[in-house]
Specification:
Layout: H1 6-10, E1 16-17, E2 22-24, E3 30-32, H2 34-37, H3 48-56, H4 58-69, H5 76-84
Antiparallel strand pairs: 1-2, 2-3
């Protein structure tokens, strides 16, 4: 067992920007840029091993939540496809020509 070194365990790799709002530190670990959340959410420091433990167990957690609470599981791609389909909200409603729709 290797000795515990605070700096090694509490200093994640340098983040890389993925988009305006997302960063990645560890491979396959995408997160909202913490600077965008500081105003509303107290940021906690996790040891690197705990961050990786949480990331690696997320699918088990989701499977458990679905088994206990979901009657249907939707894929994000299904939701996005529905948003792209024209629907009743795309049609002008009654009174739209008068600016009351």
């Amino acid at each position: 067992m290797s000795p515990y070194r605070y700096d090694e365990q509490h200093s994640p790799p340098e983040p890389e920007r993925v988009s305006e709002v997302a960063i990645t530190t560890f491979e396959h670990l995408y997160e909202v840029d913490p600077r965008l959340m500081q105003r509303w959410v107290l940021q906690q420091t996790f040891p690197n091993w705990d961050t990786l433990r949480i990331m690696n167990s997320r699918h088990d957690h989701l499977d458990w939540m679905h088994a206990h609470f979901a009657t249907k599981v939707l894929q994000g791609s299904e939701i996005l496809a529905e948003l792209d389909e024209p629907g009743p909200l795309d049609q002008p409603g009654p009174g739209a020509e008068r600016g009351a729709g």
